[in-house]
Specification:
- The strands form 3 sheets. A 4-stranded antiparallel β-sheet has the order 5-6-7-8, with helices on one face.
- It has 7 helices and 8 strands.
- The protein is an alpha+beta fold and about 240 residues long.
- A hairpin with a 2-residue loop joins strand 5 and strand 6.
- The protein starts with a helix and ends with a helix.
């Protein structure tokens, strides 16, 4: 599937005149299960070791192998774009992370770092290299594109353009865990979570989010920040996230 999508992406690039705007969203299924590895890449990670010692298991090697075709696809798309690639806005991001045994869980849809702290790489005219460690969110992509293309950013947009100077302090996370809805506030250092039918919880990154420290914080303050993020829209979101 990755090769098929790459071929179609290149066709879109090649059939879009260079004097017209080009928007391309390339979203391969890899490394989702079944994580099919292209024949040319089978065995690429047969002898690979993990960063923590030991070898990858079969499922992990398949996930890694499936991404080799995705890497090749990006090169093909960049080559097709030619000089347009140099001035384009490029975003590399994912919808979620995936736990592989952390916190005794396998999968996604939880509030721990392995599930929700996903790197987003962005290169676009006007974005400074000094924002490498910025706490951003998917809601920032649309206003960034709008600003880069000279469009007015609608007041109703919740996010912030990455070209602007700001330092977001917190983001809203929401999901469903085993049928129960949860929402929380994620910062650089901690996460506060409220789950239906459960007492509020608070974890810190300093200990890999392994200990509930709700009794050590001002829970009412965090609950207020969560409520503000859940009920905000537009400009009020840009006030609630603490970015100034």
């Amino acid at each position: 599937m990755t090769d098929v999508l790459a071929k179609r992406a290149v066709q879109v690039v090649n059939t879009t005149p260079k004097n017209e705007p080009l928007f391309l969203w390339f979203a391969p299924k890899a490394p989702h299960v079944p994580a099919t590895v292209a024949r040319r890449h089978r065995g690429d990670f047969a002898d690979a070791d993990t960063p923590f010692g030991g070898s990858f298991d079969k499922a992990e090697r398949k996930r890694l192998g499936s991404l080799s075709a995705a890497d090749e696809a990006v090169v093909k798309i960049a080559d097709a774009m030619g000089t347009r690639w140099d001035s384009a806005c490029i975003f590399v991001l994912s919808d979620n992370g995936y736990l592989l045994g952390e916190h005794d869980r396998t999968g996604k849809g939880v509030w721990w770092d392995g599930s929700v702290r996903v790197p987003m790489l962005a290169r676009c005219p006007g974005i400074s290299g000094a924002v490498d460690a910025r706490l951003s969110a998917n809601i920032d992509v649309a206003p960034t594109i709008a600003l880069a293309t000279g469009l007015e950013i609608p007041a109703a947009v919740d996010g912030r353009p990455l070209q602007a100077s700001w330092e977001r302090e917190r983001v809203l996370i929401e999901g469903w865990l085993e049928g129960d809805r949860f929402s929380g506030v994620k910062t650089e250092d901690a996460v506060y979570v409220e789950e239906s039918g459960q007492p509020a919880r608070y974890y810190e990154r300093s200990d890999a989010e392994s200990t509930d420290r709700i009794g050590q914080i001002n829970a009412a303050l965090w609950a207020g920040e969560l409520a503000a993020l859940r009920n905000c829209a537009g400009a009020t979101c840009r006030a609630a996230d603490g970015g100034g």
